[in-house]
């Protein structure tokens, strides 16, 4: 990582705009933030370099020096965080990890708390539950502060000043020519540590409670979609509760295949039905549909029914149902059937031997190659 340049670290081109730099930084900072990768030293190291790269490339003056002279040029100029650069980074972190992220992101944790107020669970849905929506009773287990230690994790609530950060909650780190503050790894930003672990919660600072939550799941959700249930998260020392985030996993169906709001179904059709054309009944999400096969229907040909797919979870507009033909052939023929098929083939004349017309010129050309004409 130390040998990589700043553009490689942020995974951007050397002519990236300021907006592209900030977008790349947001994405990588979320991915490698220590809160999302607890105990992962490699992620922590990468996170430091991501911040370093953004601090340089988001500053026009420093970026010009770096582009011309590299890191050595910056060191000669005297590198380091400028106040406006740090403010910009903090604004980004507040937007990423604060309460307003993505229209309902997870809340930042109080440094004195032992757990985050928001938490996430995965909920498995059957295919039809996801398509049409469902009301679900979901058992959850959430955290509440330990009454014996008031959520501190310390016996009798007795705390001492953190020896690592001296009660500041932060430690100053130096990485190359950069100096910046980082959450104290010992007290996790609280500035205090327990004199001795609480005997009731064993230093965790919390107990757990069970609850059944009733959730109305809208029609059209898909795997990976997330629903916020406000007020069903963990509880803090003031009795306030965070939010529960439910991520869905939708099971597959035996016949229907979903792609976004479109539904695909494979329709097995005997070869004579394709040749002659026929009206057949096929299943749809909401009942039955008539599929009119025209004479000469081809294998894998698709028939589209607009408005017969999945309702969009936001707009309610329905997608398509796409029926794809799978032509089937007879596995065995009786002597009588073989005879009838031979007669049928002969009745078409040259049309029943399309390869002859297609390859006639090729046969002649190949013969000339060997002097046979």
- Give the end-to-end Cα distance, rounded to a whole number of Å: 70 Å
CATH class of the domain at 6-97 reads: Mainly Alpha
How does the major sheet shape up? 4 strands, mixed
CATH topology of the domain at 6-97: Helix Hairpins
Give the name of the CATH superfamily of the domain at 6-97: DnaJ domain
Architecture of the domain at 6-97 in CATH? Orthogonal Bundle
Shape: elongated
- Counting DSSP E segments of at least 2 residues, the number of strands comes to 15
Strand content: 25-35%
Helix content: 25-40%
Task: Count helical runs.
Answer: 9
Q: Helices and strands: which structural class? A: alpha+beta
* Biggest β-sheet: strands ordered side by side in the sheet: 10-11-15-14
pLDDT average, as an integer? 84
Could you please describe the fold and organization of this structure?
The protein is α+β, with helices and mostly antiparallel strands. Among the domains are: 6-97, DnaJ domain (Helix Hairpins, Orthogonal Bundle), CATH 1.10.287; 256-328, HSP40/DNAj peptide-binding domain, CATH 2.60.260; 335-369, no CATH class. Helix content is 30%, strand content 29%. It contains 9 helices and 15 strands. It has helices spanning 6-10, 18-32, 41-57, 60-77, 83-97, 127-132, 271-276, 335-347, 354-369, and strands spanning 119-125, 134-145, 159-161, 170-175, 178-183, 192-194, 206-217, 226-229, 244-250, 256-259, 262-270, 278-284, 287-293, 302-311, 318-328. The strands form 6 sheets. The chain has a 4-stranded mixed sheet with strand order 10-11-15-14. β4 and β5 form a beta hairpin.
């Amino acid at each position: 990582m130390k040998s990589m340049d700043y553009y490689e670290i942020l995974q951007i081109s050397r002519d990236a705009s300021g907006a592209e730099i900030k977008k790349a930084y947001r994405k990588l900072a979320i991915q490698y933030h220590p809160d999302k990768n607890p105990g992962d030293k490699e992620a922590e190291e990468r996170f430091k370099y991501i911040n370093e790269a953004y601090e340089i490339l988001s500053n026009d003056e420093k970026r010009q020096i770096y582009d011309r002279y590299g890191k050595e040029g910056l060191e000669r100029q005297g590198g380091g965080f400028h106040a406006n650069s740090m403010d910009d980074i903090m604004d980004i972190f507040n937007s990423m990890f604060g309460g307003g992220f993505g229209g309902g992101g997870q809340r930042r944790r109080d440094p004195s708390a032992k757990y985050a107020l928001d938490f996430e669970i995965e909920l498995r849905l059957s295919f039809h539950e996801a398509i049409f929506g469902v009301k679900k009773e979901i058992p959850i287990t959430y955290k509440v502060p330990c009454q014996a230690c008031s959520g501190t994790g310390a016996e009798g609530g007795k705390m001492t000043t953190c020896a690592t950060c001296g009660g500041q909650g932060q430690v100053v780190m130096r990485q190359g020519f950069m100096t910046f503050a980082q959450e104290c790894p010992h007290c996790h930003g609280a500035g205090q540590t327990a004199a001795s672990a609480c005997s009731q919660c064993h230093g965790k600072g919390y107990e757990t409670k069970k609850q059944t939550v009733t959730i109305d799941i809208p029609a059209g959700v898909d795997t990976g979609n997330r629903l916020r249930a406000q007020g069903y998260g963990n509880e803090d020392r003031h009795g306030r509760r965070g939010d529960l985030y439910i991520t869905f996993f939708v099971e597959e169906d035996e016949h229907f295949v979903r792609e976004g709001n479109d539904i695909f179904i494979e329709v097995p059709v005997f070869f004579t039905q394709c040749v002659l054309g026929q009206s057949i009944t096929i299943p749809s999400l909401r009942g039955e549909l008539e599929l009119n096969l025209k004479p000469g229907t081809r294998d894998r040909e698709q028939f589209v029914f607009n408005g017969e797919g999945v309702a969009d979870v936001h707009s309610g507009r329905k997608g398509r149902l796409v029926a794809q033909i799978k032509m089937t052939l007879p596995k065995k023929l009786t002597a009588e059937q073989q005879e009838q098929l031979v007669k049928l083939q002969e009745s078409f004349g040259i049309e029943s031997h399309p390869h002859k017309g297609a390859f006639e010129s090729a046969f002649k050309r190949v013969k000339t190659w060997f002097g046979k004409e």
